[in-house]
């Protein structure tokens, strides 16, 4: 069941950034100390026993909780960024999203075969972004891959969760 504190603090903006998109704005969850702590606590409970060594945060809203959780878990943080932002050699993936195309990349030395990786983003819509990120991370042959979102869109004909390979364990805090 969805947490009422999180529901109460989430802002939705109709028709942004384009007509027809009901934009879920997690910045209002982040600015409120109680909802920020609730997200951190729920994520910690989900992943405290999984042996996570790296958290891959998806640009840009995925960066926020990735760092907070990594500190609690004793894991490192890896930035998964839009093209041209990372200074060293990268590996890339391109993908289709709810509104347009995009590419993401990770430094080529960011993950190794001993890592247990948790990918995190604020929201799952079509799943295109996170599927591309999972495919990217799998190129590094980590021991295990988890994916987590604060919000999963399920009520606007989104089937994002079905896009992932079966070996990727997916969890979400809110289903809307
Ligand atoms: O499941 P999908 O259909 O792929 O959509 C989800 C992605 O879209 C949003 O990011 P956006 O591309 O707006 O980038 P931003 O976080 O840098 O603003 C969101 O933060 C996810 O990363
Ligand atoms: N509806 C939505 N709200 C917030 N971020 C999104 N990314 C893709 N779709 C989105």
UniProtKB/TrEMBL annotation:
The keyword Phosphoprotein does not apply. Its EC number is 2.4.2.7. One of its GO terms (cellular component) is cytoplasm. It catalyses: AMP + diphosphate = 5-phospho-alpha-D-ribose 1-diphosphate + adenine. Residues 26-145 form the Phosphoribosyltransferase domain. Keywords: Cytoplasm, Glycosyltransferase, Purine salvage, Transferase. Pathway: Purine metabolism; AMP biosynthesis via salvage pathway; AMP from adenine: step 1/1. One of its GO terms (molecular function) is AMP binding. One of its GO terms (biological process) is AMP salvage. It is found in: Cytoplasm. SUPFAM superfamilies: PRTase-like. Its main location: cytoplasm. CDD domains: PRTases_typeI. The keyword Cell division does not apply. Catalyzes a salvage reaction resulting in the formation of AMP, that is energically less costly than de novo synthesis. Homodimer. Belongs to the purine/pyrimidine phosphoribosyltransferase family. This is Adenine phosphoribosyltransferase.
């Amino acid at each position: 069941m969805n947490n009422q504190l999180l529901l109460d603090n989430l802002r939705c903006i109709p028709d942004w950034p384009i007509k027809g998109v009901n934009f879920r704005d997690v910045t209002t969850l982040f600015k409120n100390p109680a909802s920020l702590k609730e997200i951190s606590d729920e994520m910690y409970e989900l992943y405290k026993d999984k042996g996570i060594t790296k958290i891959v945060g998806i640009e840009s809203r995925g960066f926020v909780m990735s760092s907070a959780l990594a500190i609690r878990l004793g894991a490192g943080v890896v930035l998964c960024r839009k093209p041209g932002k990372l200074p060293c050699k990268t590996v890339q993936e391109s993908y289709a999203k709810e509104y347009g195309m995009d590419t993401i990349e990770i430094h080529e030395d960011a993950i190794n075969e001993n890592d247990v990786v948790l990918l995190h983003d604020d929201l799952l819509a079509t799943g295109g972004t996170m599927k591309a990120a999972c495919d990217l991370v799998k190129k590094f042959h980590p021991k295990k891959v988890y994916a987590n979102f604060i919000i999963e869109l399920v009520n606007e004909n989104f089937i994002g969760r079905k896009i992932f390979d079966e070996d990727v364990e997916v969890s979400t805090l809110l289903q809307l």
